[in-house]
Every structure is written in structure tokens, then in C-alpha cells.
Design brief:
This protein has 479 residues and is an alpha/beta fold. Helix content is 39%, strand content 13%.
């Protein structure tokens, strides 16, 4: 088959104009899946037949002169914690194995309406709890760039699907870095929008005050396009911001002249030297493009990891209580109902999920609520205040996305704290509710990708994408 467009924008333009067919684009991606999926294991489920039917409908609509959406014919992969009507949604957990939701998540419906074609549901750390996709009940996903290394997590399958060419774009969820960190490790673009900009309706909850859905893509422009499609008010989500989706694609090429970019002088340490070198390179590139680099301080972010690992497990403890063996999913046999609850959860949840449920339950328990959970909420407020002060001085802030490049399987499994530290730079923006994204910017150790994180104030996606576009352009000239 002749080479076809690869970016989402180019695919949609070519399909809409009739230059290529959605079916041909789909078959090229299905061929890529057939060639490498056994090695990579990006997917929990591949929806080949439904995808072919959808592609055929799009081609028929175009032949009939009917309007098609902004993502017409674009192959899409969905993280397996987003509800898809009649299609198994497991969260990579045995406790939900076989469950088929009776409705679509809002983002799924919006993408389908825009003409995107779902090719499958991607693997993740169970219930989105992890930074390597090693915690899946269905086995780990491998990094397509080096199969001996992790793709990051928890949205590792979604990042791997785009990096391997299995789909042009994908969706992940980000609670503490679960889009940005795997994007960095797999060398793709990953976006966590402002909390509330994208509907969470139909996203299986981990930590409801932190979770946010966002895209993976190979280009900043594609990431902007998908964000525009999925963003905007949704009355089905009580936390949805009541305003329309922003125009982001026009921001990508605007450049950074006269923008103020923040360099955090009290950034937590521990990053690999090659990662910090790329951060310095990014500041130099932006300065050369006309931006002003301004030093800022964020005194409270050194406590972000601690606060997060009280708040997120506490919310998970509440959210995951619904998996009791009664309403849906796994049910373990037992002599009476309380024993059934315990047996079902023991059999259905993996070790990391159990660890976080127990930690969260402890933090919320009588006598400890004020000492732990209450204090964590106060730290969260301090972090948000620090960001607010910094954003009076700058338009955006740059940090590494991950302190290290993709690491080998097993390196951190036995040391939860080492795994948690993978998200030391990404967690603060979740606690503040602010947008952040990762853009590939050269390579580090072992010639593996390094991601630069761009953070911006609430609803600051436009300046964030301006910086992202400039970094993407600068990255082409890196050695």
C-alpha cells in the first residue's frame, strides 16, 4: 500500500477531500498493529470490525457529499478507563474484566461525531495507578522505541500506540502525570488540559478532583486539534467549565516573541544530567525566539508529592468502594455478603491498587483525617497560591516532564517511592488544576527521548500551545 498521510490534520484533510479513503488509512494502521502489537502490547482490545464499519460509513458520507468532522478518518486509540458503549472497559483490572458500559463517555461521543475511528482500548496501570504500565492485570506495555524499557504510565498503552504508529492520536487520563510522563518517555506530545475544560463524564474515576482527560499526538498541532474537539462545556459533568472550547490551533505558530517564560529556581532535584541539559537547551531556544526568561520560585512544590499521595489515595478509597461484587464486574464466591466483599476485592484488585486504597482509607479514618488529609488539602492550597504568584510574573513555566528517560522493566517495581518520584514534576499542576503538556525535545541517556513540560495558569492553553509550537520547531535543530 502506498504511503498515506500520518498526522491527524493531514489524514482528516485528505479523507475529507477524497484524496484518500478512511478505509485505506485504517488498513495501514491495522497493518502496523498486526506487525508489532504482539511485541508492544499497547492494547487490551482491538476493535477491528467496528473500525472498518465506521471507516466505510465515513467514505460513503463523503461520496454522498455529506459533511464530515474535523477528525474524519483519523485512527484513534482510547485508554481503557473511558466508557465505550457495548465495548469492554476494564481499567486493566480483573475486577472489571468483561464489563461493557451502557453508554459512551462524552469525549468518546465527541470524537466519534468528529469522524475519528476507534481502533482499540489501550492498556494502563490498573485504575490508572502507576508510572510504568507494569501494574496492569493483563501484562505490561513495552516502549516501542526500546522494548526492554517501560513506556511510562499510567497511560502507557495510549502513548505507545501513537509512538508505534498504531493510531494517529489517542486519549489518556492524567491524575498526577499519567499523560505527560508516558508522552515524554515515548517521545510524543501529551496534554493535560485545565481541570474542567474537558468533560470527565464516562471516565472511570481514580481521584475525582485531580483526573483530567487529554490527547497524545505526534505533533503539537494534532494535540491542539484533538483538544479543541473534546473540550467545552458538558452538563453531564458538574465540574465542567461553562465555556466553549478554545481555539488552539491558531496559537501553535504564533511564536513566543515578548512572552515571559518562567525558570523555577527551587525546582526539586534528582533529574538526570542529560534531562537538565535539555531543559537548559529549551530555555536557550525560547530566548533565541524572542522570549524573556524570568526566574520564579515555587516554595511549596517540594511538598506536592507528599500531599498528592494523601489526597489521591483518599479519593481512590472512596471511588473504588463501588467495586463490591454486587453491581458489576467480578464476584468471588463466599458464604455471606461481607466475606464476598473481601474475597472479591482481594481477587480483583492488584497490589498497587490495594496499597493506595489502604493508604487512603487510613488517611480518612477517625483520628487521622485532620492530621493527614486535612493538612494535605492545606498544602494543595499553598501550591496553588505559589503558582498564582508566579503567573503574575510569567506567561508559562518550563520544567522537565520526567526526571529520567524510559527505565528498564523491574527497575522500580519493588520500591514504590522510587516509582512515585517519576511524577515529581507533573503532580503540582494536577493539584493546582492548571494545564500542562509535554513536548519531545531531543534525547538523553541511551539516546532515549526527553520531554519538556510547559505549565500555564488555569485556562492558559493558548499561551501554553504557543510555547509548545516554538519548542517543537526548535527541537528539529537539536543534535
Amino acid at each position: 500500500m502506498a504511503s498515506l498521510p500520518t498526522t491527524a490534520a493531514d489524514i482528516a484533510a485528505a479523507v475529507s477531500s477524497g484524496t484518500v479513503t478512511a478505509s485505506d488509512v485504517l488498513e495501514q494502521h491495522l497493518a502496523a498493529i498486526a506487525a508489532r502489537e504482539t511485541d508492544v502490547h499497547a492494547f487490551n482490545l482491538i476493535t477491528t470490525d467496528a473500525a472498518r464499519q465506521h471507516a466505510a460509513r465515513i467514505d460513503a458520507d463523503i461520496a454522498d457529499g455529506k459533511p464530515v468532522g474535523a477528525l474524519a478518518g483519523v485512527p484513534l486509540a482510547l485508554k481503557d478507563n473511558m466508557c465505550t458503549r457495548g465495548v469492554e472497559t476494564t481499567c486493566s483490572s480483573r475486577i472489571l474484566e468483561g464489563w461493557k458500559p451502557p453508554y459512551d463517555a462524552t469525549v468518546v461521543q465527541r470524537l466519534r461525531d468528529a469522524g475519528a475511528i476507534m481502533v482499540g482500548k489501550t492498556n494502563l496501570d490498573e485504575f490508572a495507578m502507576g508510572s510504568s504500565t507494569e501494574n496492569s492485570a493483563f501484562g505490561p506495555t513495552k516502549n516501542p522505541l526500546d522494548l526492554s524499557r517501560v513506556p511510562g504510565g499510567s497511560s502507557g498503552g495510549s502513548a505507545a500506540a501513537v509512538a508505534a504508529g498504531f493510531s494517529a492520536v489517542s486519549l489518556g487520563s492524567d491524575t498526577g502525570g499519567s499523560i505527560r510522563q508516558p508522552a515524554a518517555l515515548c517521545g510524543v506530545v501529551g496534554v493535560k488540559p485545565t481541570y474542567g475544560l474537558v468533560s470527565r463524564y464516562g471516565l472511570v474515576a481514580f481521584a475525582s478532583s485531580l483526573d483530567q482527560i487529554g490527547p497524545f499526538a505526534t505533533t503539537v498541532h494534532d494535540a491542539a486539534l484533538v483538544t479543541e474537539v473534546i473540550a467545552g462545556h458538558d452538563p453531564m459533568d458538574s465540574t465542567s467549565i461553562p465555556q466553549p472550547a478554545p481555539n488552539l490551533r491558531s496559537a501553535v505558530g504564533q511564536g513566543v516573541a515578548r512572552m515571559r517564560i518562567g525558570r523555577v529556581t527551587d525546582l526539586p532535584g534528582g533529574a538526570e544530567p542529560e534531562v537538565m541539559k535539555r531543559l537548559d537547551d529549551a530555555f536557550e531556544a525560547l530566548a533565541a525566539a524572542g522570549a524573556e526568561i524570568v526566574d520564579v520560585t515555587l516554595p511549596s512544590i517540594e511538598y506536592a508529592l507528599t500531599a498528592y499521595y494523601l489526597i489521591a489515595p483518599a479519593e481512590a478509597s472512596s471511588n473504588l468502594a463501588r467495586y463490591d461484587g454486587v453491581r458489576y464486574g467480578l464476584r468471588a464466591p463466599a458464604s455471606e455478603v461481607n466475606a464476598m466483599y473481601g474475597a472479591t476485592r482481594a481477587a480483583g484488585f492488584g497490589d498497587e491498587v490495594k496499597r493506595r486504597i489502604m493508604l487512603g482509607t487510613y488517611a480518612l479514618s477517625a483520628g487521622y483525617f485532620d492530621a493527614y488529609y486535612g493538612k494535605a488539602l492545606k498544602v494543595r492550597r499553598l501550591i496553588a497560591d505559589d503558582f498564582d504568584r508566579a503567573y503574575t510574573q510569567v506567561d508559562a513555566i518550563l520544567t522537565p516532564t520526567s526526571p529520567m528517560v524510559a527505565f528498564a522493566f523491574g527497575d522500580k517495581v519493588e520500591d514504590p517511592m522510587a516509582m512515585y518520584l517519576c511524577d515529581v514534576y507533573t503532580i503540582p499542576s494536577n493539584l493546582a488544576g492548571h494545564p500542562a503538556m509535554s513536548v519531545p525535545f531531543g534525547t538523553g541517556a541511551h539516546k532515549l527521548p526527553v520531554g519538556i513540560q510547559i505549565m500555564a495558569p488555569a485556562l492558559g492553553e493558548v499561551p501554553m500551545f504557543r510555547v509548545a509550537g516554538a519548542l517543537e520547531s526548535a527541537a528539529r535543530g537539536l543534535k
